[in-house]
């Protein structure tokens, strides 16, 4: 997926349209947008690429969170 770094970051209140988990991927479609967690973004990658006008991928923040989380919270 192509990441657009100038997009507004997703927050903890943004939820995956598929499962309700925290969203890390915003998919802009010709008729609106969808939000996906990292899991569903990867699972639907082919369909997303085929339909999306833009994809804003913020999954890199997951790596940052894990790296800074206390060991007992990883």
Assign a percent range to the helix content.
Answer: 25-40%
Give the H and E element order: EEHHEH
* Number of helical stretches of at least 4 residues: 3
The secondary structure category is alpha+beta
Shape: globular
Number of strands: 3
Mean pLDDT: 84
Q: How many structural domains are formed by the residues?
A: 1
Strand order of the largest sheet: 2-1-3
Strand content: 15-25%
Contiguous uncertain segments of 5+ residues: 1-5
| Biggest sheet features | 3 strands, antiparallel
What is the radius of gyration? 13 Å
Alpha carbon gap, first and last residue? 26 Å
Notes on the structure:
With 74 residues, the protein is an alpha+beta fold. Helix content is 30%, strand content 19%. It has one domain. It has a three-stranded antiparallel β-sheet with strand order 2-1-3. The chain starts with 24 loop residues before the first strand and ends in a 6-residue tail after the last helix. Residues 1-5 have low confidence and may be disordered.
């Amino acid at each position: 997926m192509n990441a657009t770094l100038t997009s507004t970051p997703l927050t903890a209140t943004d939820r995956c349209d598929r499962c309700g988990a925290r969203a890390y991927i915003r998919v802009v479609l010709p008729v609106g947008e969808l939000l996906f967690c990292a899991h569903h973004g990867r699972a639907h990658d082919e369909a997303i690429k085929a339909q999306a006008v833009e994809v804003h991928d913020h999954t890199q923040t997951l790596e940052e969170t894990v790296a800074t989380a206390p060991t007992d919270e990883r």
